[in-house]
Specification:
Residues 243-259 form the Prokaryotic-type class I peptide chain release factors domain. Peptide chain release factor 2 directs the termination of translation in response to the peptide chain termination codons UGA and UAA. It is found in: Cytoplasm. The modification N5-methylglutamine is found at residue 250. With 370 residues, this protein is α+β, with helices and mostly antiparallel strands. It is 49% helix and 20% strand. The chain folds into two domains: 5-114, Methane Monooxygenase Hydroxylase, Chain G, domain 1; 126-369, Alpha-Beta Plaits (2-Layer Sandwich). A hairpin with a 4-residue loop joins strand 7 (258-263) and strand 8. It is globular.
Length: 370
């Protein structure tokens, strides 16, 4: 069937125009100009935290503006290619145009999903924690697979990551792990991954080859900023130092550099053992603790608002995805119904389809609650 380029180009133009209305390129250019003046100031790095905030914000805005203007430029170029190809009867140009039409449609759709991230903390970087739950050694192995999946997803997108803490299980896999994803909108994007994940497979650890169901939990928190004003009085903290361990309990440090912090008023416990020094581990653990307290405050505020509204849809972070490797191959999101049979690709980090579907689903839930 011949491609209706006119209709397809018009659809992409409408979608991109609506994206531009949300992103507001002119406002982005004005803020970029202001930040460039701040970056040029000779005393910028006298205040390192402020300098990092300014440079990070500038980089994010420049990337966002370049992305949306690049899409507009590609759409204009595609329209010209189609026009020339049709006028001259150039089949090769039209084949190239059809290929670009598919790619551009996917990229515009991905950008459209970004405009749905309008939550209070959605623009921030993310702290992700993965925990093995029910299922014994299979759950520990599953938790490690999920950790690799998210790290590969970040790598595919060119996002930086930093692993803060890995607690290895005795036989295989991990009990838990905490890492940061350093990218704008990482929290808004990955927050739809929060919840319980379920794996069904023939257990490689069962010598009778029986099918095993195991579970792992994923928590996603926003990274805190100066404006959050989270106070951590020394009297509210119990700080313990211990020796880091590798797979199978093997000691990997010659000094007791790992740090565990207990927030006494809430009972929240965090730890970090992957940095080189005790001081670095303490700083990283405090950062995770602040993120947990920030999320706790947000959840309490949301629960209060839901009570005032007479309920609401409740948490969307319960059991949310199944990974079935036997008797068939299928990964399926239980909220959005999005699914794929390519389980290998999913565990290798190809989860954008699930994330995009989750973001759209969450937006519909929020609109239904209003």
């Amino acid at each position: 069937m011949a491609v209706d380029f006119g209709s397809s180009l018009a659809d992409l133009d409408r979608a991109l125009t609506s994206i531009e209305a949300v992103i507001d390129p002119d406002a982005k250019r004005a803020e970029i100009a202001q930040l460039e003046q701040e970056v040029a100031a000779p005393d910028l790095w006298d205040d390192q935290e402020n300098a990092q905030r300014v440079t990070s914000r500038l980089s994010h805005l420049q990337s966002e503006l370049e992305r949306v203007t690049g899409l507009r430029s590609r759409l204009d170029d595609l329209a010209v290619l189609v026009e020339l190809g049709e006028e001259e009867g150039d089949a090769d140009s039209l084949v190239e145009a059809e290929r670009e039409l598919g790619k551009l449609g996917g990229d515009i759709e991905a950008m459209e999903v970004r405009t749905l991230l309008s939550g209070e903390y959605d623009e921030r970087e993310a702290v992700v924690t993965i925990r093995a739950e029910a299922g014994g050694i299979d759950a520990s192995d599953f938790a490690e697979k999920l950790m690799r999946m998210y790290l590969r997803w970040a790598e595919r997108h060119g996002y930086g990551t930093e692993v803060y803490d890995t607690s290895y299980a005795e036989e295989a896999g991990i009990k838990s792990a905490t890492f940061m994803v350093k990218a704008p909108f990482a929290y808004g994007t990955l927050s739809v991954e929060q919840g319980t994940h379920r794996l069904v497979r023939i257990s490689p650890f069962d010598n009778q080859g029986r099918r095993q169901t195991s579970f792992a939990g994923v928590d996603v928190l926003p990274v805190t900023e100066e404006t959050d004003h989270i106070d951590l009085p020394e009297g509210d903290l119990r700080i313990d130092v211990f020796r880091s361990s590798g797979p199978g309990g093997q000691s990997v440090n010659t000094t007791d550099s790992a740090v565990r912090i207990t927030h006494l008023p809430t009972g929240i416990v965090v730890s970090c053992q992957n940095e080189k020094s005790q001081l670095q581990n303490k700083a990283a653990a405090l950062r995770v603790l602040q993120s947990r307290l920030l999320e706790k405050a947000r959840a309490e505020k949301e629960a209060e608002m839901n009570a005032l509204k007479g309920g609401g849809s409740g948490s969307w972070g319960e059991q949310m995805r199944s990974y079935v490797l036997h008797p068939y191959q299928m990964v399926k999101d239980l909220r959005t119904e999005h699914e794929t049979g390519n389980t290998t690709a999913v565990f290798d980090g190809e989860i954008d389809g699930f994330i995009d579907a989750g973001i759209r689903w969450r937006k519909r839930q929020e609109l239904a609650d209003d």
